[in-house]
Design goal:
One of its GO terms (molecular function) is hydrolase activity, acting on carbon-nitrogen (but not peptide) bonds, in linear amides. This protein has helices at 24-38, 61-78, 98-111, 133-149, 158-161, 191-199, 202-205, 212-227, and strands at 14-19, 42-49, 83-89, 115-119, 172-176, 183-186, 236-243. It is of the alpha/beta class and 245 residues long. Helix 1 (24-38) packs antiparallel against helix 6 and helix 2 packs antiparallel against helix 6.
Length: 245
């Protein structure tokens, strides 16, 4: 048996980010994504819900989902991502089902990524807000889609028979908001792109005083950098990297 790699691949051609809500990828990973696209990696977003249960004003619920889709597309563009897909599951009610596993497997087979980024299925007790039930469920569903579903030609045979989607093996998965984070990405030089992405989510952040979001998230990224022994003054995003090839 070949030994597992000692760290993540230095570069991949394609990466897929599977998250529960519009803005999830931007709070935890937009800086990392910006470094990937700058290096030539083609990145696709798969957002499981439209975030229709979010927001802080009286926006009608039937308008919130479409608004948040547009906000996510704008945020994606800020970090070099143009392929944004939505699965349309109900916000706040995501369950671990075979249908969800199949739908994520479909996107994996369509995109054929070497790397998948998703949320950790483990609860983070130190920062409970990171462990929204939808986040944990999407993380677990994505891991099940990576292994065994997407790589098994006999799993969801309709994907091959009806849609011509061949099995695909993902080499590595990056888990955000993980209590086991073992890899940090220095995002100091792309942090302005991250701020632009975050501020694109107007329905979610416009209720906060100017600068408060950057102060809060910036302090969080500074602490992450210190935890992972980056030089003083740097900003980082951290992940648990799992080799799945």
């Amino acid at each position: 048996m070949m030994p597992l790699p000692s760290g993540p691949a230095a570069h991949v051609e394609r990466a897929l980010c599977v998250l529960a809500h519009p803005d999830d990828v931007d709070f935890g990973s937009a800086g990392t994504v910006a470094t990937w696209t700058a290096a030539g990696t083609e990145v696709t977003y798969c957002i499981v819900t439209d975030g229709d249960a979010g927001g802080f004003d009286e926006t009608p619920r039937d308008r919130m989902g479409p608004l948040r889709r547009e906000e996510q597309r704008a945020a994606a563009a800020a970090v070099g991502v143009t392929d944004v897909r939505f699965l349309g599951y109900p916000d706040g009610r995501v369950e671990l089902t075979l249908d969800l596993r199949r739908d994520i497997s479909r996107v994996i087979r369509q995109v054929r990524p070497q790397r998948v980024l998703t949320s950790s299925p483990e609860r983070m007790w130190e920062r409970i807000g990171a462990s929204h039930p939808d986040h944990m469920t999407v993380g677990e569903s994505t891991l099940r889609a990576v292994y065994p579903d997407a790589r098994n030609p006999f799993a969801f045979p309709e994907l091959l028979a009806d849609e011509g989607l061949e099995a695909w093996t993902v080499s590595e998965v990056w888990l955000g908001a993980s209590p086991r984070a073992d890899h940090a990405v220095d995002v100091t030089d792309v942090v302005e792109q991250k701020w632009t992405a975050l501020m694109s989510h107007v329905t979610q952040v416009s209720h906060q005083p100017p600068g408060q979001l950057q102060e809060f998230v910036g302090a969080w990224m500074q602490q992450t950098a210190r935890t992972h022994s980056l030089p003083a003054g740097r900003l980082a995003e951290a992940f648990h990297v799992v080799h799945t090839g």
